[in-house]
Amino acid sequence: MDNIAGKKSSLTWVLHLSVLALVLLWIFPTVGLLVSSFRTTDQIRSSGWWAALFPAVQNETLRSADPDESRVLRDDGLYMVSGNLYVVDGAVDTPEDVVAEISVWGTSSRNIDAYVPGDTADLGDGETMTVEANGDYVWIGNDAQISGRGQRVFVTAESPPEFTLQNYRNVLFDPDNREGMTRAFFNTLTVTIPATIIPILIAAFAAYALAWMEFPGRALLIAAIVALLVVPLQLALIPLLSLHNSIGIGKGYLGVWLAHTGFGLPLAIYLLRNYMVALPRDIIECAKVDGATDFQIFTKIILPLSFPALASFAIFQFLWTWNDLLVAMVFLIDSSGETTVMTRQIVELLGTRGGDWEILATSAFVSIAVPLVVFFTMQRYLVRGLLAGSVK
Amino acid sequence: MNPALQGLVTIIVGVGGCVAYFYFSNQILDKVLFPPRGPNAGRNINRAEAIRPWLFLFPAMAALGLYLAYPVFETIRLSVTDRDLGGAFVGGANYAQMFQEDKFWEAVRNNLLWLLVVPAMATAFGLLAAQLTDRIGWGNIAKSLIFMPMAISFVGAAVIFKLIYDARPEDVAQIGVLNAIYLQLGGDSPITWLTVPFWNNFFLMIVLIWIQTGFAMVILSAALRGIPEETVEAAIVDGANPFQIFFKIKVPQIAGTIVVVWTTITIVVLKVFDIVFAMTNGQWETQVLANYMYDKLFRSNDWGVGSASAMIIMLMVTPILVWNVYNARKEMR
Predict the structure, then answer these.
(1) Cα dist. A115→A99, A136, A141, A296, B190 in Å?
(2) A32-65 confidence digits (pLDDT tens)
(3) Is position B91 within any domain?
(4) B101 and B209 belong to one structural domain
(5) Which end of chain A lies in a sparser environment, N or C, as judged by fewer CB atoms within 10 Å?
(6) Would the CB atoms of B325 and A233 count as touching at under 8 Å?
């Protein structure tokens, strides 16, 4: 018995570790995007996102303060400029905020690691430059040397992990940013909400009829719904677009709402019918005996009881319309681009800003965030819907 | 009108219209057309009951007919006519033209490749994840995280994986994980993975496998839970090892569900568009049918060939469609 128990515990460890490995493998890509969206352009360019969790070594070109404004005349007749390299050009405001640790520095682009912090560089003819590890510098020379532009200093610094919300500010709250996601976000929302609500109601009535009413041709209709479930919506693009154009809807929100309603109905009817048909027959028959009409049975009994199925479909339809690209491109987005949705905007950014990962990652995460919130809060209903919706 | 306001009005009109339609049509049926009183009360009730289902069904059937059934027939018609000739019947000319295009055969080949790889891999990973997470304490959290990509749009996933496949010049730090690992393992120079013909298809497929595994896992996990405990216990008593239990006892009992998962993912694969459109747009020999069709319809404005390729997709879906209908009917008896 002992060795069986021992064998079991080692197997359990293997099990836990392999599940952990699988989970890490699966969330790794998303985490990469999330981390990238909080990094600055320089950070993204200089290292992979996984390095963001560790101190980064960065090469930077910094410049001392403008000598004409800030130089002071010393007793020995030389001029001096002092301060902190990061305060003027870098991202920080006061020397206390400097977090970087300079490891090597230089004053020529050909020799950027000539000195260590604390060294004094001889720039010729008595002109000198001293740089400390935190970026404090002293630059001394005569009148001609300490003038014009500030002295360039090439530093190699190790900076601790640093995250910024600036990308989100740029993408979401900058009104001048023509590539921002704000408008696309609201357009997506405008597409999504009616396209989620309207099919539910239409489908619920039809599902009730298919589940609890007797009429000739019912089985045939159910079979037709199952068939329509898998008809590729690609087939519908051109016929419906010309239909929309000929009846004057054209490209616009009304068209995309109608299209999403039509495409969502088979799944909605199928899910709801399967759920309703499993409700106890007794309740419905009792209500009938008590004189309730079909309309009353539906609104007062079936609809409230079917809430879980309604929620399942609502989540499906929400995720599907929110994440949709094709239907929006065909039925909504016209040449003006005013009604662009987030998925389309991201595809466009992939084309025009292919290498600017801070923009891409942030934009993509803005569009992913809402479905993820819905997913984690309503997961129970989503799973239930999946189980009911896959044709058994 | 402001789109948000328009949306609100649409919700009110749509929902209000639906409720009003159902309410008043029932009222008219009961109060005006066939009132259940007077000399013909019995006959009227029967007639009202015969008509009512169609009142309930009408909006859904109208929408389905117009938005899904009609387009199928219209697409068939478009695929045998030529738009430039004013819609004249041209027989199989569009198909013949399509069959001569290399890009079409490339799309067919890639689609078949997708059909072979993605459902198999997603189902296999899903089964693995379902089995592994079945009996452990934090299994639900693990499942939830593996399931998460289902909520992410194809376009979002395309961005996520483009970051992974990113390639930078040799002398700067790689920011794409794949190239970083590749160089770490001794590769000579970074590879732009999405431009390597043939193999790039697999890099695109990984995206869909990543998304669909969660779906397969959820369904198969429920099926595994439904296996009668006695069968597993009997196998243990008979001395079966865990692998035998899994492959010889559990898998055969959930074979039906595996087929369902497989066919459902197959349908998704046949319609795959966004991933290819966003990541390569069919360049470097990664074309698939759905993107080929989009190209024909909206870039070359060739409705005939576009519709013909849509019919090819429909043709590939049809066996699954028939199979589903057959099963659904069998279940209802």
Answers:
(1) 20, 14, 19, 87, 33
(2) 888 888 887 777 777 777 777 777 677 777 778 7
(3) no
(4) yes
(5) N
(6) no
